[in-house]
Predict the structure.
Amino acid sequence: LIARIDDTAKMKHEELKTNHAHAECSVLVRLCWSKNVREERDAQDQILSGAMNPSRCALLALSTWM
């Protein structure tokens, strides 16, 4: 995700969406703020991709954190 850690930590469960183009390996997430965004409503959905290595998988880390 292209965001600061404090904005990423504010992410809510409702902001996670299915990425229909690649549902088996990624999700879409909308943060309250993002890099190069001036207003909150300008923040676009970002893709969060998984990895085959469990020690580097962002989806596994996200599910553990939530």
Remarks:
- The first strand starts at residue 16 and ends at 18.
